[in-house]
Structure formats: C-alpha cells, structure tokens
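Justification of resources, computational component.

The compute hours requested in this renewal are based largely on the per-chain cost of generating structure records like the one below. Each record pairs the submitted sequence with a full structure-token output. That output is archived, and it is also reused by downstream analysis tasks.
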Amino acid sequence: MTNYDFHGNALTTVSADAAAAFDHTLDGYAHFSRDIGDRLKAVFAADPEMPMAHLLRGYFFKLMAAARPAERVADSLPEIRRLCTKATVREQGHSAALDAWCNDDLPEAVRLWDAILVDHPRDFVALKLAQYGHFYLGQSAEVRDAVGRCLHGWSEGDPLYPSVMGMLAFGLEETGRYDEAEATGRRAVALDPNDPWAVHAVAHVFEMQDRAVEGIAWISGLQENWNQANNFRYHLWWHRALMHVDRAEYDEALSLYDNDLFDADSEEYLDICNDVSLLARLEMHGVDVGDRWDVLARKSSGRIDERLMAFADAHFSLALATAEPARAGEMLASLRDDSFGKGGWTDRVTTDVGISICRAMIARHAGDPGMAVDLLMPIRYQLPVLGGSHAQRDLFAMLLIDSAIQDNRWKTATALLSERALNKPGNVWTLQNYAKALNQVGATAKAAGVKADLERLLTAAG
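The structure output for this chain reads:
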C-alpha cells in the first residue's frame, strides 16, 4: 500500500499514521521546531521500516556536521539501502544522495537532489537540501535557481508554500536582487510569521544594504515568532547583534551575546561560528571582549580532527588562534594531513583555502599580520567555496583589511577599502577605516570627503 506526503509525493509505507507523522516532521523541519526529534520518532513508532523516515534521520544527522552523528548515519547506510530496494525511484534517489554525502561528495549529492526535483518539484526535503548543498558549495546563483526551477509546482494554498517563498527570498538576496528578495521575504512572513528562514532572508537584505535601524526593527518585531525556533534562533540574534555593532552600539551587542546568543551547552557548529564571528567583529571595532574567547576555544578544540565542513573549520581555527595558539597549531597539522580523507569535497576546499585561512589566523594572533595579508590576499576571490552567506564570509574580508592596517600596509588597505566602499557605501566601519587609510597615503582631500560622508550617515541614522 502506498501513502503520500501532503505535497503528493509517494511514500513507501503501509501506515497512514506514519505518513501523517512524516508531514508533521516536515513542518517541523521547515519551522526549525525544537521538538523535531520527537516528531521523527513518531514516524518510526508508526512504521519502523519506512524508508523516508530513515533517510530523513540520516539527513538530520549529516546536517549537524559533527563526528558522532556522522558516524551514526554512516553505520545506518546498509539498512537504508536494504529498505530502499523496494522503495520508489524518488526514495532511491535520496538513498544515493545520502550515500554520496556520507562519502564527502557533496557536489554529487546536490546533483542527485536537483535531479529528484526535476520529476518531483514538490519534494520539500530535496528542495531544502539542494539549497543547503548549493549554499555550502558557494554557488549563489544555484541557491536561487534550485528554488526557481521548482516554482511551477507550488501555489499559495500548498502546505509549506511560505517556506518555499522564504527560500526563494534568500536565493534572491544572495544574488544581489535585494528589492525582490525583501518583497518576497515579507510576503512569506505575512503568510506565515512563524517561518524563521523567511525572517532571516529579509534580515540578510538589511545587513547587505547596511540598513541597521530597519533591520533591528524587523528582527525585534518578529522576535516572539522566531525565538521559538531551535538553535537557529541564535543565528537571528547574531544578525541583530551585527546590526548593533554596525551602529557602534557595542554594549547592546555584548549584552545580546551574553544573554541571548551564546549558549554554554551548545556544541552546534553554527552556534560556534556565530559566536566567533561576532567577537572577531567586535574586536575589529576596538571592543575588549574579555575572556569570552576561552570557552569558544575549548569548544573548537574538540573539533580539530573532524574536518567535516571547511566553513566551520575556518571559524574553529580563529577561536583557537585567539585563545589557544598551541591547539591552533595542532589544527593546522590536522588540516595538512593528506592521509585524513580520500580527496573528497571537504579535503579539496581545505587544500584550496582552509589551510591558508588557518595559517593566517595563527600568524595574525602571533603578531605577524603581514603574513596574514600574504596568505589571505591570493585566496580572497576563492572564499565562496567555503560556503556560507556573503554576510558570513565578509568576516574574512574584514580580517584581511584589519591585518593590512595592523601591518601598516596603507596602500593595500586603501585599495581594499576603496573597493569595499564601492560595494558597501553605508558601512560605518568601512568609511572610518577608509578615511584613516587615505590620510596615511596622503590623500587628505579624499579623506575629508569620506569623513563628511560618514558624518552624514551617522546623523541620518540617529
């Protein structure tokens, strides 16, 4: 007997209760629900051999990007393959994608999810994972187009349609189509205010356009909705804190870090990345963050040999270089260990950019910012392969500029800040440092003009 999910995709299960519980789990996945584990357990209770239940559990483990869950899903692959021998072609495609992902072949997994969506554009799991995969492959256009290719299958009355619109808004934002992204994200939130991803997509627009006042109001106004989410809520707190940093409201940013963003018990990679990124930005704004680095270094220390995600490793290396330099050296040795992997996607990204980032972080915090500049400059246009958003990767652009300033490489800093001012003309940190660099290279008239622009910006922002 075949049952169907609430988007009409066939599920290999004899249990209508299992199909209903699967729908409930999909809804939890879309809304970042804190009880998603219990929802999935209900699927297994109704049908312990339902292939998509096993596949979804495997996907959830992989999304954690941590050693123990990765081992658990790898151990489950033989059973999943057995269950999928009599499953639908779509479910078999998911099995192949999970296999590829477990073998560190994220590009192949993404290809398989995209292929599933050609025949099944309403497969919400494949759609979420395709966008996630393109995101961590650094493929901004595909982050947008993975959703765009499926829009013909969706309409406003469909379950999770607002979530699809939120995903589209994020793809539009990552490709610089800010007006469309904002309108689409606002529409998604109007349809479903409890979708954190749509709230997040619009927050990204405000961040990229340096509209901090509007961004803070947007995030704060919807706090009651998104703060019910799982750990993803910390990422929205991170966005709000960044906006306060941009307004030089450093006490507020630190208060948000201590009371809302930082979770002492969390080992989630994104939580650590949020924390590392915020503290590093605060320090580049001249803020003393005290001993807050210590716990992040301890958390990162336990991840040295995982090498599951180059994006996370880059942040771990920064935390270690800041507070535990000896352990940062151990991480660098691990990243350089050719015997660790089998030449998979993470290994390739680590070789191309990850090792240079780790070396740069170590050099910068060992008092050699010039070496950090020499290491980061050649890879600055390769950074998208790390994955993450433009806003997240901007940390490394800022670290490059700050290292050039520390090393008194004023011509290099001026060139980088001139470029940055073109792309972020409303960014306070950029204009402050640009004026300083221009004065250092003798362009005093230009520096005065930049200072005037900065004063107008600050006056307008209140």
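The mean pLDDT is 96. The chain has 25 helices and two strands.
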